Amino acid sequence: EVSCRRLGGGVVQAGGSLRLSCAASGRTLRTYHMGWFRQGPGKEREFVAAVSWSGDRTFYADSVKGRFTISRDSTKNAVYLQMNSLKPDDTAVYYCAAGSVAVGLRNPSNYGYWGQGTLVTVSS
């Protein structure tokens, strides 16, 4: 089972920071590519960031590039999303996902395991 949670409050002011974590029980994440996706109010689910299983490749949506950082800690079997300079448009339910397909990490169809999602609200 893959689970994701916030490390900090669920409501943050614009310009603030928040960190999300993704962990797994009964499964190692070390051999999976990991991605973060989000779904805002009235919007479709969209790609946010991804990291290869080895950690040597990262990918970001243009909307978060330079503000968000994805990282993984194999010793803790966890993946993180550090979100800085948050904007109201970042308000969404954030999902982490694990996949074994080596290409197309921006495509949610290439991920087989999903966390339950965690809500992030950015106030203006």
TL;DR?
By secondary structure, this protein is mostly beta strands. Helices cover 0% and strands 48% of the residues. The radius of gyration is 13 Å and the shape is globular.
Low-confidence regions = none
Discrete helix count: 0
Instruction: Provide the β-strand percentage band.
Output: over 45%
Q: Helix- and strand-based class?
A: mainly beta
Order of helices and strands: EEEEEEEEEEE
Count of extended strands = 11
Overall morphology = globular
Helix content: under 10%
Reported for the largest beta sheet, the result is: 7 strands, mixed
Determine the mean pLDDT. 90
Q: How far apart lie the N and C ends?
A: 35 Å
Please compute the radius of gyration using only Cα atoms.
Answer: 13 Å
Written description of the protein model:
- With 124 residues, the protein is mainly β.
- The chain contains no helices and eleven strands.
- The strands form two sheets. Strands 2, 4, 5, 6, 9, 10 and 11 form a seven-stranded mixed sheet that branches. It has a four-stranded antiparallel sheet with strand order 1-3-8-7, with no helix packed on it.
- A hairpin with a 6-residue loop joins strand 4 (33-39) and strand 5 (46-51).
- It is globular.
- The termini are far apart.
